[in-house]
Write a structure and sequence with these properties.
seven-stranded mixed beta sheet; alpha/beta; globular; about 220 residues; about 20% strand; 7 strands; binds S-adenosylmethionine; single chain
Length: about 220
């Protein structure tokens, strides 16, 4: 994602009722049901960018809670601005944070599913640990997911996709579903919500890959 610093984005985010702030988010670890004031299952999108995917998902599934996670204020601001036009939506909040800290913000068995869409590829080997489907991140997801909780990953980057499959296997995850051409796979395409990147890359003729994995063991 091209990052332009938007002056005032930090302040706008700090003022938004839809963004849970750093001190509060850690305090709510294991108690996110209190934040949403219900016991509905909780789903995360990690690296949500401008937030179209998770906003549509939240609109379609009022009986589920959603938290969108984004590292950069300038990008998050776009999602917050759209969110502010939907005050009736009760099940969508945002966090500005690095996903490395997920286990400090969510408790064991607190999250029912995680979406990764068009994650940054970090092509240099020495940066592999920063890739969101890496073994290091899978360990973090394992710590917060319910047993059988799924990670769903979409990308047009074949190298990153193959890396994700390899890492999932090495970390003992089960592949539930996999396609190298999502938009021509009727069953996996059912209910698909396009992300901003998906729309852009598929319009350029790139095939979209999708992987669904579940964890098969519980972290201590
Ligand atoms: N998911 C969106 C989509 O499909 O249109 C955006 C994709 S964009 C290429 C990747 C996003 O992930 C960027 O906005 C980036 O800031 C965010 N990101 C990357 N690493 C992250 C991390 N460790 N924690 C939180 N967000 C991260």
């Amino acid at each position: 994602m091209r990052l332009r610093n938007i002056p005032g984005s930090r302040e706008a985010i700090a003022a938004s009722e839809y963004v849970i702030h750093e001190d509060v988010m850690r305090e709510k670890r294991g108690r996110w049901n209190e934040v949403f004031e219900n016991d509905h299952p909780l789903f995360l999108e990690v690296g949500m960018g401008k937030g179209r995917f998770i906003t549509e998902l939240a609109q379609q599934n009022p009986d589920r809670n959603y938290v969108g996670i984004e590292k950069y204020s300038s990008v998050l601001l776009r999602a917050v601005t759209k969110r502010e036009e939907l005050p009736q939506l009760h099940n969508l909040l945002f966090l500005r944070m690095d996903a490395e800290d997920l286990p400090e913000v969510f408790g064991k068995n607190e999250v029912s599913g995680i979406y990764l869409n068009f994650s940054d590829p970090w092509p240099k080997d020495r940066h592999a640990k920063r890739r969101l489907p890496s073994r290091e991140f899978l360990t973090r997801y394992d710590k917060i997911l319910i047993p059988g909780g799924k990670v769903e990953f979409k990308t047009d980057n074949r190298a990153l996709f193959d890396f994700a499959i390899e890492q999932a296997g090495e970390a003992g995850w089960t592949i539930e579903a996999c396609t190298y051409d999502l938009h021509r796979d009727d069953s996996m395409m059912e209910g698909n919500i396009m992300t901003e990147y998906e729309e852009r890359f598929s319009a350029q003729g790139n095939s979209i890959c999708k992987l669904v994995i579940s964890h098969s063991r519980q972290m201590p």
